[in-house]
Design goal:
38% of the residues lie in helices and 16% in strands. It is built from 9 helices and 10 strands. The strands form 2 sheets. The chain has an 8-stranded parallel beta sheet, sandwiched between helices. Helix 4 runs parallel beside helix 5.
């Protein structure tokens, strides 16, 4: 029986305003359907609801170079969106959203390190894990999970696990932390698929690529065989999760076949490692997930074990 540790739900209204572009799959309704579902199911009643602060420039500069931070801070959106790449449009509402999305991770780390929460979920958009040190790409502007990890290291932590089960490889997080032995990035992702990652064989990047149509069996085997033993060896002081739900079978952007139950299962696995290594400290931040129907249910499945553990 784990001791009582409050669960935090961190978000900001600005995350609903960023538009991403007409008919863009990364749309504000994503957050709305998640929140609606959790409210309906009563899960939000068990979570402390916290408004995300904006990340500071100093916090962003821990993982991004100055030119990139300035480009996002000062993008001219007065006559329409500023396109960082063909998928990634910054409109007049984007800056506030990305600052609060990154700030949510910082706040979450502060809450779990101070013991005010055991688990924190950052219900934010846009996502962040494709954003590299020097560029925005793939719907992502600032790398929120990387900002959270760097914040934890600035508080003195020396061993951090970042888990990423989004269907797309988190190239930005890899770009930022490759070779930094304080961080191990554990990934499962579809290959081939955007961003067409070729694993460089770097020790702190634990990459497990899954061919199209892989489902529960392959995902669970990858986690059991490649993530868990290495995590138990690493003994992370904090577990961060890039929680993307686009590997679900219903997702329109990709071709993996994860089930709803897979997200509850992986949450249980994460909890077990967290209990063994870092008194339950887990921070998850929303990445992808583009079927509105499936996304809300996947998040519910993922959160359920953390909420009921309290
Ligand atoms: Zn994705």
């Amino acid at each position: 029986m784990s001791p009582f540790r409050p669960v935090a739900w961190i978000t900001h209204p600005a995350c609903l305003r960023h538009g991403a572009g007409q008919n863009h799959p990364e749309c504000p309704q994503r957050l709305q359907v998640i929140e609606e579902r959790l409210r309906q199911k009563g899960l939000l009643d068990f979570m402390q609801q916290i408004e995300a602060p904006a990340a500071t420039v100093e916090q962003l500069l821990r993982v991004h170079d100055r030119a990139h931070v300035e480009r996002v801070l000062h993008a001219d959106t007065t006559h329409g969106p500023f396109w960082h790449d063909p998928d990634t449009a910054q409109d007049a509402d984007t800056l506030e959203a990305v600052l609060h999305a990154a700030g949510a991770g910082v706040k979450a780390v502060d809450l779990v390190l101070s013991g005010q929460a055991g688990f924190a979920f950052c219900a934010v958009r846009p996502p962040g894990h494709h954003a590299e040190r020097g560029r925005a790409m793939g719907f992502c502007f600032f790398n929120s999970v990387a900002v959270a990890a760097a914040h934890a290291m600035a508080q003195g932590l020396e061993r951090i696990a970042i888990l990423d089960f989004d269907v797309h490889y988190g190239n930005g997080t890899a770009n930022i932390f490759a070779g930094d032995e304080r961080v191990v990035l554990y990934s499962t992702y579809q290959n081939p698929l955007y961003p067409y990652w070729q694993s460089p064989g770097i020790d702190n990047l634990v990459d497990v690529s899954l061919p199209p149509h892989s489902g529960s069996a392959q995902f669970r085997a990858a986690v059991s065989k490649h993530w868990i033993p290495r995590m138990l060896e690493q003994k992370p002081q904090l577990i961060l999760v890039s929680a993307g739900f686009d590997a679900h079978a219903e997702d329109p952007l990709a071709g993996l076949q994860f089930s709803y139950e897979d997200y509850a299962w992986v949450a249980g696995q994460i909890q077990d490692v967290a209990e063994a290594c870092c008194p339950g400290r887990v921070v998850a931040t929303l990445e992808g997930g583009y079927s509105l129907h499936a996304l809300a249910r996947c998040v519910e499945q993922f959160l359920q074990p953390f909420v009921t553990a309290t």
